[in-house]
Amino acid sequence: MDLRMMRYFLAIVDCGSVTAASKQLFVAQPSLSRQLRRFESSLGVQLFSRMDRRLVLTTAGRQFVPIARDLVARAAQAETMAAAIAAGAAPDLVVAAPTTTINDIVAPFIATGTRVSVANVIETQPADVYGAVTRGDADFGLGTSVPMRSLHAEVLIRVDVWAQVPEDHELATSEAVDLVDLVGFPLVHLDIGHSVRRAFDAVAADRGLTYDAIAQTRAPRLGQALAAAGRGVCVTSDDPRYGLSKARVLVDGAPLTVTLYAAWDQEHYASVDIEETIADLRAFTIARYGRDEDTPPA
């Protein structure tokens, strides 16, 4: 497909006419009109209707605009990447991650400024982290579900699950609470899309336990706000906020944890840089949260 003609097509769309686009592109108006007709013929689709000497996008044309913009943008990105590779420059990497991981791990890591090559972050729902990688929207992803087999994956860290409460709650001075005891309190839970909730429910089901969830939320910060307001105990792996105290959730004396994976395509042109960045990110995360003995390759 002719990228030059897609750029011409988008110029016509943005300028509103072939005449205006020809001036912007420095292409003669008759030549641009002929090239547009040939482009439509090669696609087998009429992109514009000719009405009273005006061009109006057809339904197919309107549907094609976002496709053309995406292809032109990706082509520009490819050219920039190729120039960086030729110059031997380290690539600017894009990571996909859920909100909690961005707030508690990725953003603090970027803030260190030490050998950080992460230039952008795509905030995704937990279920779409690896999809962003396979679509090419991100160079690597950080997620708590097991990555698909088509991606190379490593365990970044296993993080503790916490019971978070305001300072006047009876658990506020506890360093840990067993899950068997925790279910006796009203709970503020994350929804089932979060790995913390799935890990908690798996243990509860295995032991035949039930509990009262006074609220379920997709946003961990909202759950923490409800706990701070005295509505219940927030069960989360997030760092505490709003003055909450935290008690580690235990199962038979061992911490309840969720696993954070890093996943990427080993055929990626910057695979070596991704691996180095993930190694730096793992070292940072272990220093911040501990548990270096729990981070073998997946």
TrEMBL record:
Superkingdom of the source species: Bacteria
Single GO molecular function: DNA binding
Keyword Secreted recorded: no
PROSITE patterns from the UniProt entry: HTH_LYSR (PS50931)
One Pfam family linked to the record: HTH_1
Segments forming domain HTH lysR-type: 1-58
Keyword vocabulary terms for this entry: DNA-binding, Transcription, Transcription regulation
Statement: the UniProt record of this protein carries the keyword Ribonucleoprotein: no
Xref: SUPFAM superfamilies: Periplasmic binding protein-like II (SSF53850), Winged helix' DNA-binding domain (SSF46785)
Any one GO CC term of the record: protein-DNA complex
CDD domains: PBP2_LTTR_substrate (cd05466)
The family this protein is said to belong to: Belongs to the LysR transcriptional regulatory family.
The protein's name in its UniProt record: HTH-type transcriptional regulator CatM
